[in-house]
Amino acid sequence: MSKKFGFVYDERMLAHECLYDDFVYERPERARLIYERLRDEGLLDDAVKISARRATDDEITLAHPKSIIEELDSLKSLDECEDFCRSKEILWLNPKSAEVARLAVGSAVDIVKANVEKKIGNGFAIVRPPGHHSYDDLPQGYCVYNNVAIAAKYAVEVLGVKRLMVVDFDVHAGNGSFNVLKDDDRILFVSSHLHHYGAFWPHEREFDCDVTGNNIFIPFNGAMNSEGDYLAAYHHVVLPIARQFKPEMVICSAGFDAGYFDVMLEDGQGIKAPGYGHLIRLLNDLCPDRVIAIFEGGYFPKNYVESAYMMTRGLRHMSLPKIVYPKKVNGSMCEVIWDCLSHHAKRWTVIAEALEKAQKQQELLGLAKYAPRPTKLFLGDSFREHINEARDEGRLNTRNWIPVLTDDQVIRANTMIEAYIKEYNFYSPTVELSAEELVQQIVWDEKTQADCHVRNVICMKFYNEWMDYLQDDNGCMFILNKKNKATK
Q1: Which end of the chain, N or C, is less surrounded by CB atoms within 10 Å?
Q2: DSSP state letter for 14
């Protein structure tokens, strides 16, 4: 019998709110709307509620220096908060934010502790602010303290977990968590994220597939990967490595901004809500009743509420709508899977065997063996350096930098999401692919290669936006504005 589901939710975390900008996507209602949906659907009726708790300095320093704790605690006025954020990427704060961030950390630690102590089975911490971009003395990307990284470190350092897996499925790279966890051999870190060959934030080479150590990156270079394409990457790369690693538990950075028609619309990803439930089910198969999800991103309400609901159904071992795995993954994702197999075969025997089998299939079909690009493609040269310079000089935008969806775009996104929800089929089981069918998904033929090139054209949109900004003496883009004066 499955252990009781656990959760965290505390309205004190709604006090983290931007008070000097008219609109930001990371808003208090993100947590509230998810909680209310789970409550109204009865998913919390027999659950164990873990009380939110203020984290100690010793817990926070598992991922951050004491100096940043002291600096954040010292921010007493709104002006001080905004001045602080001019030298931080994509961040806003108010005088209550540091205290709320302590609650998020303490809650993440305690729900993991409750699982290790067998007081609960799977669980979901509906906390904010999010954390997976923050590390060292760099709160950024809406994140103050790194909730997941601290909880993971606490699990191995204090609770005695010998092998832990962290899965970050937010659409943005888990750069903060990676920097905290990357050298810890007790932890297998996975991040599936937008990359666009470096044309997408954080514009760093290291978030491509050729990461070293006990780390796996699934970098998306194309738009609108479906849940079937997305889960294929987990079946081909992540899960085989995880089985070889043999984790005792899984902590998820649960961001839903890769969801179908989140705020990036067609420029984003296409994972429909049931995909998150099915991913959690796969992770639960790996570590039964040892999966803890901690809320990160997701910014379009219809998407993130539905996605969190389906993920929670997965955590609770409830029925999920049927999904259909594609017979062939799209060309862009196919290239990523091949590149990941080619790279990780050097470290993981199970991947070496999978690569050999896939290459043998190429031969049997009369096709050339797959070969990664001889030169790594990276479109982000100078982008990161430019951001760093603006950040270090304290001239990043703190107001009116969010591109807001129009009313027509909001209506369209809601309509697209509602349309697939109407098609849910809870009565027919999802048919898992056989080992042979999985290999057939990644045949690398002329048609697949052409599809890859077409799908990856989206990279040029992000690249061209950057180049237009860099070439304009009065350029203004997102958090960057060349007219801003240095404050440091």
Answers
A1: N
A2: G
Distance from chain centroid for Cα 374: 29
Q: Give the residue among 232, 177, 234, 178 at the shortest CA–CA distance from 206.
A: 178
pLDDT score for 2: 65
C-alpha 322, offset from chain centre = 23
Residues 143-146: contacts with CB under 8 Å, at least 24 apart: 143/91, 143/176, 144/72, 144/91, 144/93, 144/97, 144/98, 144/101, 144/104, 145/55, 145/60, 145/63, 145/64, 145/101, 145/102, 145/104, 145/105, 146/63, 146/64, 146/176, 146/177, 146/180
Residues 6+ apart with CB under 8 A from 347: none
Helix (H/G/I), strand (E/B), else coil: 227: helix
For residue 488, what pLDDT is reported? 83
Q: What is the DSSP string of 298-312?
A: --SHHHHHHHHHHHH
Strand 480-481 relative to strand 476-477, pairing: antiparallel
Whether residue 294 contacts residue 416, with contact meaning beta carbons closer than 8 Å, is answered with no
Q: Token digits for 62? A: 């598992």
Q: Which of 133, 172, 196, 343 is catalytic?
A: 133
Q: Rounded to an integer, what distance in angstroms lies between the CA atom of residue 142 and that of residue 339?
A: 31
Give the CA angle between residues 56, 61, 63 to the nearest 5°: 125
Write the CB contacts of 266 (distance below 8 Å, at least 6 apart in sequence).
223, 224
Judged by DSSP in three states, 292 sits in strand
- Do 9 and 35 touch, CB atoms closer than 8 A? yes
Nearest-angstrom CA–CA distance, 481 and 345? 44
One-character DSSP codes across 167-226: EE-SSS--HHHHHHHTT-TTEEEEEEEE-GGGTSTT--GGGSS---SSEEEEEE-SS--B
Report yes or no: 257 and 307 within 8 Å, Cβ to Cβ: no
What's the whole-model pTM score? 0.97
The helix or strand, by DSSP H or E, that contains position 31, with its residue range, turns out to be helix 29-40
> Would you say the C-alpha torsion 22, 24, 25, 26 has a positive or negative sign?
negative
Per-residue model confidence as pLDDT tens digits over 406-423: 999 999 999 999 999 999
**What is the helix (H) or strand (E) element at residue 57, kind and residue range?**
helix 57-60
pLDDT digits (tens, 9 = 90+) for 39-82: 999 999 999 999 999 999 999 999 999 999 999 999 999 999 99
| Neighbour tally for 42: CB within 10 Å | 9
State whether residue 124 is helix, strand or coil: strand
Q: What is the DSSP letter of 421?
A: H
Spans in the chain with pLDDT lower than 50? none
Cβ contact 178:204 at 8 Å: no
Residue 111 has, within 13 A of its CA and on its CB side, a CA count of 37
